[in-house]
Design goal:
By secondary structure, this protein is mostly helical. The chain is built from 24 helices and five strands. α2 runs parallel beside α5 and α10 packs across α15.
Length: 599
């Protein structure tokens, strides 16, 4: 018989260091990323590299389509087409519209919801974007631009840049404020790569995508912009370069003309933005089947291209030509009208893209046209190239809504600080006129047409999340509305509660009874019916904190019942004004700390 083993039982086998080390390293890396500014800067550099790679790839794809479809006559830009068969100019945009319509039908079945762009993501969703939305917009944008529709690639650049940033930040568990900054870094890298202009990209992010400027966000945004342009330069990639050449410094009258040109650009930009909406509504009425609209619009763009190839694509070649040559005034005016019509037609028909670069071209043309006016009114002639740069920035400000970004674009493309001063004057006036007379940039105008109330990327999504349904208390005390006063006093003695919600015979909200009033000596009613208050005033769970406070202020009470719906009137909770104010103040303080980098 074998004696029992007297040795101690074996200890449980621990996880080996080899298996726990990777998990520990990942956790430590995530903690480092979330723990300070350096981690965010590191992510911003990665985001900028990715944005530069994607912008270069999209630009190369669109340029490849131009050469494939239009031939070598567009080697210097499709908007400078030379020797291209007129039939190609006429039909290729329409064929692109047909292809886009087919692609859109497939996308509608696969992902029926509208893509969320970086501005909307930062305003409403705390920087949460879908990487697939970026792929969808990039494909639509490349098809639109590659087949000659009058749209730029900036929408695709910022969409994919922001999408990559959002995915990276969510994978690493960034806080809401840091994720919003990182999405801004993606947009900064995309625009910086597009124009080889890091300051332009950085301030585009601050003004449009982050919605505010803070010291804490400066380093990551600039790091992303610089990383993006270094990536594009390393790849010898060329996206959209604005090179007006030597621009003379303005005299005092140049500043006056810059002011006037700023007003003119603002009014023209408002007309363009409203024109896009009018054409879009006309297409919805005249072409009921949405997939066919881009083809019809593309045919219209083709007709305009027969008048001037400048109608095609973003207009990079046409802008370079406008800066480098002195043509007749009539030609500039024709190109301005054709480009404005083609851009409005393309966007109204449903082609995917933006007005960023087209607005630069139209502003430059408007500036050159405006330069012909001073001699006619007794002033000294002003260099048309100077006013072209001023018009480019002022028109871009009116459409895009980023005055400092447009000022830095002029500075980085000319290298002339004196010109930048005049440009800053013009963009300030242009932005002011648009805000006072129209109230929207092109991006926020499109949100307005969709029913959204946002006017910038400033974070308001937290307010929408701070709803009555999340703030209310569910443990409410109720009573039948026809309860005897003596029974009420017995069931709800003084000090037991402040108020009781009354229900009708069907269990629906009937009003509120104040306990102190029910116990008042002068109260002699037989039932509590005469004591019912706020019979038609209550909150709904979908209301946000701001809407709830408006109701509290209108009736001047401390607490209200919360109903499940205006029709059913079933009581599901109660809410006090003091609790709403406290939570609202806490969230406001939290957002301010995030903006200054203290969270």
């Amino acid at each position: 018989m074998t004696p029992p083993d007297s040795s101690p039982p074996p200890e449980p086998t621990p996880l080996s260091e080899a298996s726990t080390a990777p998990i520990g390293r990942v956790a430590a890396f995530r903690a480092w990323i979330r723990g300070g500014e350096l981690g965010l800067v590191f992510l911003a550099v990665i985001t900028g590299i990715a944005a530069g790679l994607l912008a270069t790839a999209m630009s190369a794809a669109a340029r490849g389509l131009h050469l494939l479809l239009f031939g070598q006559g567009v080697a210097h830009g499709v908007s400078l087409a030379r020797g291209v068969d007129p039939l190609q100019l006429l039909l290729i945009p329409a064929l692109g519209g047909l292809l886009l319509g087919v692609v859109n039908m497939g996308i509608a079945r696969w992902r029926p919801r509208q893509p969320v762009d970086p501005i909307e993501a930062n305003a409403l969703f705390g920087g949460r974007m879908s990487l697939w939305d970026g792929a969808v917009v990039a494909v639509q944008n490349i098809i639109s631009n590659g087949f000659g529709a009058s749209v730029g690639l900036e929408a695709g650049y910022t969409q994919v840049g922001g999408g990559v940033a959002s995915r990276l930040g969510r994978k690493l568990g960034l806080r809401r404020g840091d994720l919003r900054v990182l999405v801004g870094c993606g947009a900064a890298g995309a625009i910086a790569a597009a124009f080889d202009a890091p300051l332009t990209g950085a301030f585009y992010a601050f003004e449009l995508v982050i919605g505010t400027y803070a010291i804490a966000s400066l380093a990551p945004v600039v790091a992303s912009a610089v990383a993006a342009i270094l990536t594009t330069r390393l790849l010898s990639g060329q996206t959209y370069l604005v090179q007006p050449g030597g621009v003379p410094s303005p005299a005092w009258d140049g500043y006056l003309l810059a002011l006037a040109l700023g007003v003119l650009c603002a009014l023209a930009a408002i007309a363009l933005m409203r024109g896009v909406t009018m054409i879009e509504n006309a297409f919805k009425t005249g072409v009921p089947w949405a997939p066919l609209r881009p083809a019809v619009g593309g045919l219209g763009v083709g007709v305009l291209a027969l008048l001037s190839p400048g109608a095609l694509s973003a207009g990079h070649g046409a802008l370079h030509y406008a800066f480098s040559t002195e043509g007749p005034l009539r030609a500039a005016l024709l190109l301005l009208v054709v480009k404005a019509a083609a851009s409005a037609l393309s966007l109204g028909a449903g082609f995917r893209g933006g007005l960023f670069f087209a607005s630069l071209l139209m502003g430059a043309l408007l500036g050159k046209i405006f330069a012909a006016l001073p001699p006619e009114i007794g002033l000294h002639a002003v260099d048309p190239l100077f006013l072209a740069v001023v018009g480019m920035s002022a028109f871009g400000t009116a459409v895009i809504g980023a005055p400092l970004a447009m000022t830095f674009l002029a500075l980085e493309s000319t290298g002339n600080f004196a010109v930048a001063g005049a440009v800053l004057t013009a963009v300030a006036v242009s932005g002011l006129v648009v805000r006072r007379t129209f109230g929207y940039s092109f991006a926020t105008w499109r949100f307005h047409l969709r029913g959204e109330t946002i006017r910038s990327a400033h974070d308001v999504g937290w307010l929408r999340d701070l709803t009555v349904g999340k703030l209310m208390r569910r443990d409410v005390r109720t009573v039948r509305f026809d309860t005897k006063l003596a029974s009420f006093r017995r069931d709800f003695p003084l000090g037991s509660t402040e108020r009781v919600i009354a229900l009708d015979e069907a269990g629906r909200y009937a009003g509120v009874v104040l306990v102190i009033e029910a116990h008042a000596p002068e109260t002699t009613a037989e039932t509590i019916v005469p004591l019912l208050k706020l019979k038609d005033v209550a909150l709904l769970p979908a209301m946000n904190a701001k809407e709830a406070m408006a109701v509290f202020d209108s009736v001047e009470v401390e607490a209200l019942a919360v109903l499940d719906g205006a029709e059913s009137r079933k009581v599901i909770g109660s809410l006090t004004a003091s609790h709403v104010l406290r939570r609202y103040g806490e969230e406001i303080d939290k957002r301010r700390q995030e903006e200054v980098g203290l969270s």
